[in-house]
Amino acid sequence: MSVCDISVHSTDRCRLDLIIPGEQHFYIRASSPQERQQWLVALGTAKASLTTNKTTEQAGEISPDIVRTKKSELRLYCDLLMQQVHSVKTAANESTPPDVQKLDDATALLSATCDTFINTLEDCMRIANASIKYESPHRNQSDPSFPVVTLKQPQKKHTNRMSKSLSLSEKVHTFPERLSASSRTRSASETSFSNSDLSETDQSSPRSGQPRSPSHTEDSKSNQSQPLTQNSNVQNSNANGNSLERTNRVQIDQNSANSDGHSSSMKRVQSEEEFKDAIDDKVPTFFSTMNPSFMDLQLGTDGGIPVEMFLGSCKSLVPFFDKLNSKAFAPVKMDFQGNIRKLHQKFTTNPSTYSTLQNMIIAEMNSNQQHLSSSATVALLWMKRSLEFIKEFLAEMYKGEQDLSTAASNSYSRSLKPFHGWVVRGVFAVAVKALPYRNVFLSMLGVEGDESEGSDFMQCLMSDMENYITALDVVIKILNDFYRLHSLESNDQI
Ligand SMILES: CCCCCCCCCCCCC/C=C/[C@@H](O)[C@H](CO[C@@H]1O[C@H](CO)[C@@H](O)[C@H](O)[C@H]1O)NC(=O)CCCCCCCCCCCCCCCCC
Questions:
Q1: Which residue among 332, 410, 413, 468 has the greatest number of ligand 1 atoms within 8 angstroms of its CB, and so is best to mutate?
Q2: Which GO terms of the molecular function aspect are on file (predicted)?
C-alpha cells in the first residue's frame, strides 16, 4: 500500500486506479463518486499513517519513497479537486437557474477533499521539518499534530489549542502564500517591527501633551542594548492579497553571535526535537491567548459563521478596551458590548435554528424585522463595521505606522466614518487623543507575567497579529458579501 500510486480517472468519476510501478495496475470502480471519495480518503489515510509512522521512526532519514508517495498523493488530491471544481462549474452553468441538486452533489465532496489535501500537505511539512535544518528560532510552522493545520502555534506554556478541523482562515482562504507565510521561516530580515518598537527613549510621556492616566505611563524602556544595524523593506500580502508593505529596521545583536557566527537569534536547529523546544520559546501574546479567537472560527460547509464562536471571538476583544483604560473609550466599549448582547439575545430565542449568523439574519428578513434599529441585522451591521475598523487599525500597526492617531484616522476613514455624523465623529476625535504611543500600545498586547518587549516578543506579536488580521479579514469579507447580496447595507449616517 505504501508504494502504490493512487490515481483518479480523468472522466469517470467512479473510477480509481491503484498502480504499483512496474508491477501491477488495479482498476477499481466504485458505485458512486461519493463512494470513490470515501475509498480515496481511506486509502490516502492508510498510506499517510504508514508514511507518518516511517517518518516518525526515521526522523532525519527520509527515504525517497516517502517523498515520492507524498508527491503522488498531493497530485491525486489536486486532480480530484480540479475534477470536483469542474463538476461545480458544469452544474452551475449547464442550466439557468442552476440545478441545485447537481450543485449540492458536486460540492458535497469538496470539503472532505480539501481536508485530505491539507492533511497530506501537513505530512509533507512534517517530512520537510524532519529532514531539513532551518535558520531562525521563530519559524512560523503550522501545528505539527495531525490532522489540523492551524494558524495559531501551540502555546505549550499556556494552552495547547487544537481546533478540530481546518480553522477558518485555511478552509476559506488557504492560499499557498498564506500557508508559506504562516509556515515560512521568518528570518530576522523579515521581522516586521521598527526600531522605535525597541527603542530605549521613554515615550510614555503624553503624546499630545495631555496628562496620561497611570496606565499610560508604562515603562517603555526596552531591554535592547544594541544599536540598530540594518533597514529593509519586505513586501508581504495577507490572505486576501492586500499587500502589507512594512518598513523593517531589524535589531541584530552582534555581540551575542554564537560559535558558528550566527547571532543568538539565528540559532541553527539540528532536529525536529530542537524545533519543538524552539516553539517553547514562543512568547504568548494577546492574540495567541484569546479564547476563542477568530483564528479558531470554523465555517459551515455553506460558509455559515457559527453564532457562539463569532460572539465569543468578539468578546475576546473587550479586555483590550479595558487595557486602553480611558473614559474616552467607554462609549466605544459600551456600543461594542451592546451589539454582542443583542446578537446573543436573538440567538438564545432559537439556538438550533440560529446556528449561524446568516440563518439568524435570514429569519429576521423573513419576518421583515431586519430594518428595526433593535434588530440583530442592524446590530451585526455595526459589529461588522467595528471589526472592519479594528482590522484596518491592526493592519496599519502591522505595516509599521508609527503614529497611532494616523493609524486610527486612516482605519476610521475606511470603516466607520462614512456612517458617522459630526457628533459621533467628535467622539472619535476624543478617543484618538487618548491613544498611547506605539511601543506602549504594542506592549499592551503582551500577556501579564510574560515578555511584552524586546525582539522575541515583537517577532511573535507581529506573527500572531498577521494571522489574526487574516482570519478577521475572512469573516468580514463573508459578512460584507452577505449584506450586499441581501441589500442590507445602509449609507445612513447616525
Ligand atoms: C484605536 C482606537 C480608536 C478608538 C476609536 C474607535 C472608533 C470610535 C467611533 C466613535 C464611536 C462612538 C460610540 C458609538 C456610536 C454609535 O452611535 C454607533 C452606532 O451604534 C449603533 O446604532 C444602532 C441604531 O442606529 C444600534 O442598533 C446598534 O446596536 C449600535 O451599535 N456605533 C458605532 O459607530 C460603532 C462604534 C464601535 C467602534 C469599536 C471600535 C473598537 C476600537 C477598539 C480600540 C482599538 C483596539 C484595536 C486593537 C485590538 C487588539 C486586539
A1: 332
A2: ceramide 1-phosphate binding; ceramide 1-phosphate transfer activity
Pick the residue whose CA is nearest to atom 11 on ligand 1. Answer: 332
Q: How far is the CA of 157 from the centre of ligand 1 (A)?
A: 34
128 burial level (CB within 10 Å; 0-12, 13-18, 19+): middle
- Name the class of domain 294-485: mainly alpha
Name the pTM for this structure: 0.58
Cα 181 vs. chain centroid, distance in angstroms? 11
- Closest Cα to atom 32 of ligand 1: 335
Atom 36 in ligand 1: residue holding the nearest Cα: 332
Count of alpha carbons within 13 Å of 55, Cβ hemisphere only?
Answer: 27
Please give the grid coordinates belonging to residue 33: 463518486
Ligand 1 centre and the CA of 106: distance in Å? Answer: 42
Task: Return left, alpha or beta for 325; rule: phi > 0 is left, psi -120 to 50 is alpha, else beta.
Answer: left
pLDDT lower than 50: segments of the chain: 52, 55-56, 59-60, 132-166, 168-192, 199-206, 208-266
Q: What residue ranges do the domains of the chain occupy?
A: 5-135, 180-280, 294-485
Nearest CA to ligand 1 atom 1: 408
With 0-12 / 13-18 / 19 or more C-beta atoms within 10 angstroms meaning exposed / middle / buried, residue 48 is buried
Strands 243-250 and 5-8: unpaired
Question: What are the CB-based long-range contacts (under 8 Å, 24+) for 259-266?
Answer: 262/135, 263/188, 265/136, 265/137, 265/138, 265/188, 265/455, 265/456, 266/135, 266/136, 266/137, 266/187, 266/188
Q: What pLDDT digit, counting tens, does each position of 249-299 carry? A: 223 233 444 444 444 444 555 677 776 766 667 999 999 999 999 999 999
Rounded to whole angstroms, how far apart are CA atoms 14 and 35?
8
Per the rule left: phi > 0, alpha: psi between -120 and 50, beta: everything else, 171 is alpha
- Alpha carbon of 402 to ligand 1 centroid (Å): 23
The string of pLDDT tens digits covering residues 194-239 is 666 874 444 444 454 433 333 333 334 444 443 323 333 323 344 4
User: Furthest-apart CA pair in the chain: how many Å?
Assistant: 81
